[in-house]
Amino acid sequence: MLWFEQEVVAALMRPDLDADTRAAVQSYVAGTLHSMPEHLRAGVLAETIALGGRSWIERRTGRFDRDRLLARLTGWKHSSIDPVRQYVRLLESLVLFAENELAPGSS
Amino acid sequence: MRKSFDTVDTDVLVIGSGAGGAVTAATLARDGRSVLVLEEGPWVDPDALEPFSLPEMVAKYRHGGSCAALGRPAIAYAEGRCVGGSTEINSGLYHRLPPDLAADWRRDYEIDEFGPDALDRYADRVEQELGVSLLPGAPPPSSAVLERGATKLGWRSVEFSRVFRYETNGRAVKQTMARTMLPRAIDDGALVMADCRVDRLVRNGPRVTGAACVQTDPDGKPRGLFVRAEHVFVCAGATQTPALLQRSGIRRNIGRGLKMHPTVKIAARFDSLIDHGDVPMHRVTEFAPGLTIGGSASRRGHVALALADSDADYADALAHWEHVAVYYAAIRSEGSGRVFTLPGFRSPVVTYQLTEGDMSRLARALVHLGEVLLAAGATEMYPSVTGGGVARGADDLVQWWDALTRNRANLMTVHLTSTVRIGEDRAKTGADSFGRVWGYDNLRVNDASLLPEAPGVNPQGPIMAVVARNSDQFLSEA
């Protein structure tokens, strides 16, 4: 999982999760992205690079802020460009599923 | 340097161990044939993991459940990848092929010996062998919701049979292939090899001589394996079967005409508590087979996903997730798709194009689903449409007609079929009336790929009946 994908996952997670659960969610998302069909994973990687470029520059210049990233994700989630919307939906779905399934009494 | 391969000989090679492969293997082994079953996925104890849980998705689903058919919109789909295939992960609902549909297929694709009587005979056999039954007691609240809503609206609903047996202590046990057909095949002498992926079939003129495989050892080390076989049945499902044939250079009418049941969902909140351990067994059949309404897995994770699909504020609903369950409406689609392989890629590309008529049917399906849930007492409904708006009353449903567009619909499916259709009309089909691939003497397909269209009902029953029929025909001919 690329740095920007890790940051997106971290931003999308509930802030009240403990460190172990956060690590388990990161691990689940990484594993699922890794096992995706190659052509889908390639598309996700391309979007990660395209959408994460600005955040990457901010990181290099010490101005990266996760709240700002979350605001961007909210905007992308409502994008009229379907692949952009689906990018956030995919990662949000994986995070949501994992953090709710890893919670006690999930069934 | 030449790679060394272990070589195994068998009379019949069955590739895949799901509803198609397991029924094929059990039928042929019972007749005394030497059968080897290869399964790409692992063996997982059917009792080891909670159904529909995250560990189950990781262990038993292809790609961990993250597959999608490309198109506008993309359609997420799920398939099993373990010993027993998708029967290990589905809800176990069972339905025979509707007789009028069988008649249509027989006519449109010129399928020999495809009459309702013959198919019913095989359905009888499968049902007897598996154990197909109704719930012994009253339905759980999540299922009763559908019956109650339909009754209020004057719509038809029915409790579907399931491939379940009920133990004396009341425990319901799904009769998956890993619990039923595969152990029977093994008892009759078949071998089942897990963690073994078939890369390609090896051909010599009109015959397939064997399969080049990679088996992964328990320590994770891959090793080459060549299986020599007199007869080969490819039963890897509607995406993997055409992909294997294409990788092997067999392409005529292979992978085209993919069909599925595109599905919209609603997360519905009720005042009372809803059960979450099982999938509802009732279905609203008022508009079947064109449109079927039912219930989905509703663990906390599924509820969260369904709520988020609406993009509304769902924090309060999720906090009370024990009052929320997920329901779906599935359509028979006019659209179709393709499965094709790309050089160097392990996974096939799957595409699906919905027609404008499909989009209209999906909007209608969503509204009807909302109507039945409202009639059953739902207080809030979150549709799987980004920005679709939460509905709390009948007036709110109107907005969904326009909300469900290609850019906003979040669709999924679990039923994929029709990528190697059967029939005598060679222009439309990839295999003859009994699944023998055109141009090959000893190569057959025997799984969901063969169904000429999506049946509008859970396809497990129709697949098993057709597979049992084809297996008997092979035995009578061989």
* Count of alpha/pi helices of chain B: 12
SS-based class of chain B: alpha+beta
* Overall pLDDT metric of chain B: 96
Main β-sheet description of chain A: none
Radius of gyration of chain B, in angstroms, nearest whole number: 22 Å
Count of strand segments of chain B? 24
State the helical fraction of chain B. 25-40%
DSSP helix count of chain A? Answer: 5
The helix-and-strand class of chain A reads mainly alpha
Low-confidence parts of chain A lasting 5 or more residues at pLDDT below 50? Answer: none
Q: Compute the average pLDDT of chain A.
A: 93
Multimerization state: heterodimer
Number of strands of chain A: 0
Order of helices and strands of chain A: HHHHH
**Rg from Cα of chain A:** 14 Å
Quick one: overall form of chain A?
globular
How would you describe this structure to a colleague?
- The complex is a heterodimer of chains A (107) and B (478).
- With 107 residues, chain A is an all-alpha fold.
- Chain A has 5 helices and no strands.
- Chain A has helices at 3-12, 19-35, 38-60, 66-77, 82-101.
- In chain A, helix 1 crosses helix 4.
- The radius of gyration of chain A is 14 Å and the shape is globular.
- Chain A starts with a helix and ends in a 6-residue tail after the last helix.
- In chain B, helix 1 runs parallel beside helix 6 and helix 1 packs parallel to helix 12.
- In chain B, strands 1, 2, 10, 11, 12, 13 and 24 form a 7-stranded mixed β-sheet that branches. A 4-stranded antiparallel β-sheet of chain B has the order 20-19-14-23.
- In chain B, a hairpin with an 8-residue loop joins strand 19 (336-340) and strand 20 (349-353).
- Chain B has 478 residues and is α+β, with helices and mostly antiparallel strands.
- Chain B is globular.
- Chain B starts with 5 loop residues before the first strand and ends with a helix.
- Classes of the chains: A mainly alpha (107), B alpha+beta (478).
- The A-B interface holds A 28, 31-33, 35-40, 77-78, 80, 82, 85-86, 89-90, 92-94, 96-103, 105-107 and B 50, 53-54, 58, 63-68, 72-74, 276-277, 299-305, 308-309, 311, 318, 321, 342, 345-349, 386-387, 406-407, 410.
